Amino acid sequence: MKPILPPFWHPAFARAFILDWDGVLAETSLDFSDIRNRYFGGKRVPLLEAGRLLPESIRVQLEKDIYDLEMEGAEKAEPVPGAAELLDWLDERGIPWAVVSRNCRESIELAARRTGIRLPAVVLSRDEEPVKPHPEALWKAARILGVENSRCVMVGDFIYDFVGARRAGMRAVLVQREEPGWQEWLDGACPTVKALLEELKSPSPWVPWEYRSLAERKGTPWLEKAWELKVQVPSHCRDSARFVHEAASLGVGHFLVEPGLNLSVPCWKASLPLARHWLGEPLWFALRGFLSERYPMTVVCEGVGGLELPETELESSIAEVLR
What we know:
Blueprint: E1 16-19, E2 26-27, H1 33-40, H2 47-51, H3 56-75, E3 78-79, H4 83-92, E4 97-100, H5 105-115, E5 123-124, H6 135-145, E6 152-156, H7 159-168, E7 171-175, E8 188-190, H8 193-201, H9 212-218, H10 220-227, E9 230-232, H11 240-249, E10 254-257, H12 265-270, H13 283-292, E11 299-302, E12 307-308, H14 314-322
Parallel strand pairs: 1-4, 1-6, 4-5, 6-7, 7-8, 9-10, 9-12, 10-11
Antiparallel strand pairs: 2-3
């Protein structure tokens, strides 16, 4: 396959896949509406988390009702079309994968037996707290798989999958449903698991979530050109975090920081986004850590000779360079 390079992305080049269970690999057709009506007046609250606020006797009954519903669904589970083929594709390429689910482990194992969908060595259910969307659920899977968070992709069918992925610094792909209101959480979406498999076999560049609004506003040619710029961070810039963030939001992919500069106390005080644990660290290191939260593919390193841009009116200055 021809590689897809930054600023674009595609799940075919992820180092590890973290898969939801219900709705992605096995279909159990769970409907929690009766439980929500009974315990929460029909409100769409996260059942596991909201249940912890209930009196103990009620919480215990809620957990039993959830367990019973999951086990009933697992008894009738069917494989999601394309799921087995997706797992074959991953195994053939040596791509590690894990299952991370809010379902109980017993129901996952039962549904696996009913559907014939094999389980991986790494299965994290709600029995292993915390659960999605807490990022630790996904970080733990990545640690066991031995892959850094930013190189993992979460494939799911519900909003908790994608909130968890964003919190964990992972990519996020929706399958098996269309939810326009979730687009702001996603790197991409495929209507079915089968469609995702076809994408993996014949990948074409996706604009990842951090650049989607820029590509919509300026077009992908702008993004491609801006990404190649190597911009010098002004050595006397009072708020270097604001400077690199604004430039990165306009597609700049590479930043050079003068060697020997550290994050001083005055610079830290002027840059609200820079955490205090970076105080005294090399400035390039602090800026790289800051940008990795929002623009994980950007490159920040020590160096000189980069493109010098004014600290104000960056967009018009970059537009002039890209003409």
